[in-house]
Amino acid sequence: MLFASSALALASALVGPMQPTVRPLTDLERQAALTLPHPRQVAWQQLEFTCFVHFGINTFTGREWGTGHEDPAIFNPTALDCDQWVTEAKNAGMKLIMLTAKHHDGFCLFQSDYTDHDVGSSPWKEGRGDVMAELASACRRHGMKLGFYLSPADLHAIHVNVYGNHSQPAKSTIPSPVPGVEHEGPQFEYVVDDYNRYFLNQLYELLTRYGPINEVWFDGANPKPGTGQTYDYRAWYDLIRRIQPEAVIAIKGPDVRWCGNEAGQTRAEEWSVIPIAGTPDHCTWPDMTGDDLGSMARIEATLAEGGWLHWYPAETDTSIRHGWFWRDEDQHVRPPDEIFDVWERSVGGNTVLLLNVPPDRRGLFADRDVDVLREVGRRAQRTYARNLAEGAGLIASATSVAESLASLLDADPSTAWRAPDGVRSASIVLNLNESRRFNRVVLQEDIARSGQRVERFAIDVWLGNRWYEVAQGTTVGYKRIVRLPLTEADRVRVRITSSRVSATLAEIGLYRSVE
Question: Nearest 5°: phi and psi at 254?
Answer without folding.
Answer: -85, -10
